[in-house]
Design brief:
heterodimer, A: 287 residues, alpha+beta, paralog of FGE (formylglycine-generating enzyme), 6 helices, 13 strands, globular, B: 467 residues, Immunoglobulin-like, six-stranded mixed sheet, five-stranded mixed sheet, flat
């Protein structure tokens, strides 16, 4: 089974890894709420630097590169959820009010916590009849493609060198914090816009720490879901109820300048059924 | 909790839709081939792939190749490793594995991890120092210790447990979403000598919701240890630092961003006193001795109020966060207290001393400045910055406690009675709570003070003529 799987993996990797396709995904209008602008990425596999912290023999080590395989197509928002979109959810009484003054409608909503993003995903799911959720760190990185930043630092057991390396890695220069109109930071090769701009994005991945034994195998793992992975110009870890990280994500290193999000749509096993229903509606069989 | 809803919703999905297959490079030899192929095609130029990683992987790939199927007679540790790899396959996940310590100790037959040996060899063996455990006690008390060190430097071991909990902070029952080390505000005082090492095991209670760590102002480097101790709930870390400087120093939680002021304003600070090996001295080098020592931790709280001006109560720390941060931004504390609550050191909890005793007061404020005065008393020797390498000031009246520092004051009580020990901004003392009492027993000294006449009506004849 394992050999079958890995052979398959090899084939997939060689045939599709260099040709990740972005397909503009046309969707039937759902009742109640228009489907957001989505991009569909083909099922494939890619190499990914794991999130979280790793240690070996009690010393911090570089996170390993993993081969991540998606057996499903990844359907993800082309752009970050905008202030106007979030406001609809607030007006519907389904999302918490934000502290921030109103911003231009066509800019990403910022100063949102992971919990706010969860509320929005739940509301959007209800409104569209689809299932929306935050991407995992792996999914975000897969969609981000070349915009994903590998955060490996040179291996060292010297705590001072480590902190200096992390500081240098996460320094983003002088970013204008003000959220910019959608599209300002351009599109990546998959057609997603504003990845790694000045708005970081919540993911659903929990902060994990793995201790490895001398053979490099995971001996123990702790997972803290009160802290989620945040993706953008650099990866960060953020307590889930924080809305503004600008005063610092960690005691060393540059903080994300804004916290926003985009969602993925889980199409589940019922998508063909849904298409069938839409066809049936067109044929006048539905209500 | 929103978080739980999310997971349960995810659980409703068909399982294969939730699953991402992750093959570690160490998973199978085939996985390594895939990785090599992917690296060849996908690795952007200039990206870092440490060579040490490649070495490790080829080593681990060999060992992984010999991972036997579950159920075989292979060593339990290997089967466990295989099982854990299988667990890696399911994402997202939420299970909390055993913490490293317990997994290594109980669950596996893995050889003792190297860091344990390293730790032992770098200290007790290489440094040839003996170890001693300090049993910390709740403030205002301070654990037993030597004032003058006998023998050479030691490694002192302490255990600090970060604990988030709700605490009542005044007589009206106002509840604070508090954060503590070892359950008290302030955290315990730790006393060692110059040249000693402090080895701290920092533990985060599994019931906690946030990361915690610890910054010792007395320690050198890595944010006082903060960079090396950031732990999640259910984890622990061990930090050792050398006490090179004498004095009383604050320690506090420093977990990053807005969490730093919030955790400090919620109670996560204490002190370390590093004594000179030959004890305290006055400016002429004369030895000073104390009969008692108390630790008073002053703390400002920022409990939000509702629209009617009443203090709000919150279900959780997360619920309290945004409002509390807003209140903190105004820099006007709702409470300023000694030892965690209004009245913590008054009445039956008042500090006690006897006439003729030398009492050492350690006083810290991790956030804001304070000014301490003993009503009816003085400070014989005042280390206002808390650092014993500077000669103490004498005849102290009121001493400044700089925010983020601690003061040491030695005073010999000369009269019996009740001494209010206050922040001499009396608004903060009497209206906000920064107030303690010292009950002193002993004989009255009539020479120092006498009541010549008890209060009585003004006698006109003895006042100004004509009145």
């Amino acid at each position: 089974m394992r050999h079958f799987w890995t052979t398959g993996l090899l084939v997939i990797a060689l045939t599709t890894s260099a040709a990740v396709c972005a397909v503009a995904f046309l969707n039937p209008a759902a009742p109640g709420h228009a489907m957001p602008d989505l991009v569909e990425l083909r099922a494939s596999s890619f190499t990914h630097r794991s999130s979280g912290e790793f240690s070996q023999d009690g010393r911090p080590v570089t996170a390993p590169l993993m081969t991540v395989t998606f057996p499903y197509n990844l359907v993800i928002m082309r752009h970050q959820v905008t202030a106007a979109e979030y406001r609809h959810c607030v007006e519907a009484g389904a999302c918490p009010m934000l502290d921030r003054d109103p911003v231009a409608a066509n800019r990403p909503v910022v100063k949102v916590s992971w919990q706010d993003a969860q509320a929005y995903a739940a509301w959007l799911s209800r409104e569209t009849g689809a299932h929306f959720r935050l991407p995992t760190d792996e999914e975000w990185a897969y969609a981000a493609g070349s915009r994903f930043k590998d955060d490996a630092i040179p291996e060292t057991i010297d705590p001072g060198q480590r902190v200096l390396a992390i500081y240098a890695r996460d320094y983003d220069g002088d970013i204008n914090r003000e959220p910019q109109p959608i599209g300002t930071f351009g599109a990546n090769e998959n057609g997603l816009v504003d990845l790694a701009g000045n708005v970081w994005e919540w993911t659903d991945s929990c902060f994990t720490r793995r201790a490895r034994d001398e053979r490099g195998e995971t001996a123990a793992r702790t997972e803290h879901c009160g802290v989620r992975v945040v993706e953008g110009r650099h990866r960060a870890y953020m307590t889930d109820f924080v809305r503004d990280a600008s005063s610092g994500g960690c005691s060393a290193g540059a903080p994300p300048s804004n916290l926003g999000f985009r969602l993925v749509r889980d199409d589940g096993g019922w998508r063909p059924l849904r298409r069938l229903l839409v066809k049936a509606q067109r044929l006048g069989l539905g209500a | 909790m929103v978080r739980r809803t999310t997971w349960s919703r995810a659980a409703l999905l068909p399982k294969h839709r939730r699953r991402i297959v992750v093959t570690t490079k160490t998973g199978t030899p085939a996985g390594v081939i895939v990785m090599a192929a992917l690296l060849a095609t996908c690795t952007p130029p200039g990206s870092t792939v440490p060579t040490s990683l490649s070495h490790r992987d080829s080593d681990t790939a060999r060992s992984a190749a010999s991972v036997p199927a579950p159920g075989s007679n292979a060593p339990r540790s290997r089967r466990l490793a295989a099982k854990r790899l299988a667990e890696d396959v399911d994402l997202p996940r939420q299970k909390l594995d055993k913490s490293p310590a317990s997994a290594l100790a109980e669950d596996t037959n893995l050889p003792l991890p190297k860091f344990e040996k390293l730790r032992a060899s770098a200290s007790a063996d290489d440094l040839n120092l003996s170890r001693e455990k300090i049993e910390l006690v709740a403030p205002p008390l301070v654990h037993p210790h030597e004032q003058v060190a006998t023998g050479g430097p030691k490694i002192y071991e302490v255990r600090l447990v970060a604990e988030e909990k709700q605490m009542v902070i005044d007589d009206d029952g106002t509840k604070l979403q508090a954060m503590t080390f070892n359950g008290t505000i302030p955290a315990p005082a730790i006393v060692i000598h110059q040249g000693d090492y402090l080895e701290v095991t920092l533990i985060s209670s599994p019931a906690n919701t946030m990361p915690h760590n610890i910054d010792f102002h007395a320690a050198t480097g890595a944010s006082g240890g903060g960079d090396l101790t950031l732990i999640s709930p259910g984890e622990q870390a061990v930090l050792r630092w050398k006490a090179t400087r004498t004095g009383v120093f604050v320690y506090h939680c420093i977990p990053g961003g807005p969490m730093i002021p919030w955790h400090i304003a919620s109670g996560m600070s204490g002190v370390v006193m590093v004594l000179p090996r030959d004890g305290l001295k006055d400016s002429n080098g004369k030895a000073l001795h104390y009969d008692r020592v108390y630790y008073i931790g002053e703390q400002d709280f920022y409990v939000p109020r509702n629209e009617k001006g009443k203090f709000k109560t919150y279900e959780s720390h997360a619920d309290a966060f945004a409002d509390t941060l807003d209140t903190m931004h105004k820099l006007i504390p709702s409470h300023v207290v000694f030892n965690g609550r209004v009245g913590a050191l008054t009445g039956k909890n008042a500090l006690v001393a006897k006439v003729g005793e030398n009492v050492l007061f350690l006083h810290s404020q991790a956030d804001r400045d304070s000014r301490i005065h003993i009503v009816g008393g003085h400070g014989d020797y005042v280390w206002e910055t808390g650092k014993f390498s500077n000669p103490p000031q004498t005849n102290g009246e009121t001493w400044l406690v700089r925010g983020g520092s601690a003061v040491a004051v030695l005073y010999r009580f000369l009269q019996p009675g009740i001494y209010p020990y206050v922040n001499h901004n009396m608004i903060e003392a009497l209206e906000l709570g920064a107030f303690a009492h010292i009950k002193v027993e002993g004989p009255w000294n009539n020479d120092l003070m006498a009541q010549v006449k008890a209060p009585a009506p003004i006698r006109a004849a003895q006042s100004r003529p004509g009145l």
